[in-house]
Design goal:
The structure is a single chain. With 178 residues, this protein is mostly beta strands. It has a single domain, classed as Lipid/polyisoprenoid-binding, YceI-like (Lipocalin, Beta Barrel), CATH 2.40.128. 9% of the residues lie in helices and 54% in strands. Strands 1, 2, 3, 4, 5, 6, 7, 8 and 9 form a 9-stranded antiparallel sheet that branches.
């Protein structure tokens, strides 16, 4: 079965074209553990912009997304200030977290969007699992998940107190460009 027919059956690849992320409707949420794995921490970060381009030769797609490091929030002022500080994200010096991808591969009932994530000036490979893509007015609504290893980006402070991995849920609402 070709990638194109697989894509059609899965219904997860939007129509060809260029789409712009809507920062007001797009979001990143995360879950991680703390206190040696005994507690769960969840929070959000704000998407500030991005673009999705779907090439007519499916499964070719490019994605860029920018997330505000300074928007890291868990509801704990002390924790949030600590994570935004130079100890972790260093949001004053590195205000943007950037994801760029250009490889879309079918994987069972999902698609894997392979790319590069840049956090605090360090770029590493990162994969998003596309959970769903559906029409949303003149654009699309996409949901994706990922697991990020903070140690890979040099964010190793508070080992034991803060978990190594963050489980990410991304909701992207994008409007088709003219």
């Amino acid at each position: 079965m070709s990638a194109t027919s697989t894509a059609s059956q899965q219904g997860k690849v939007p129509p060809a074209g260029r789409y712009h992320l809507d920062p007001g409707q797009s979001s990143v949420s995360f879950r991680t553990r703390h206190l040696w794995g005994l507690g769960v921490v969840s929070g959000t970060m704000r998407v500030t912009g991005g673009q999705i381009t779907v090439d007519p030769a499916v499964p070719r797609a490019t994605v860029t997304a920018t997330i505000s490091a300074g928007s890291f929030g868990t509801g704990s002022r002390r924790r949030d200030r600590d994570v935004r500080s130079a100890k972790f994200l260093h949001a004053d010096k590195y205000p943007d977290i950037i994801f760029q991808a250009d490889t879309l591969t079918p994987d069972g009932d999902h698609w894997i969007l392979a790319g590069e994530l840049t956090v605090r000036g360090v770029s590493r490979s990162a994969n998003l699992t596309i959970e769903s893509v559906e029409p949303a007015g003149p654009g699309l609504l996409a949901r994706a998940t990922a697991r990020i290893d903070r140690y890979a980006f040099g964010l190793t402070a508070a080992k034991g107190m803060a978990a190594r991995y963050l489980d990410i849920d991304l909701t992207a609402v994008a409007t088709r460009s003219a």
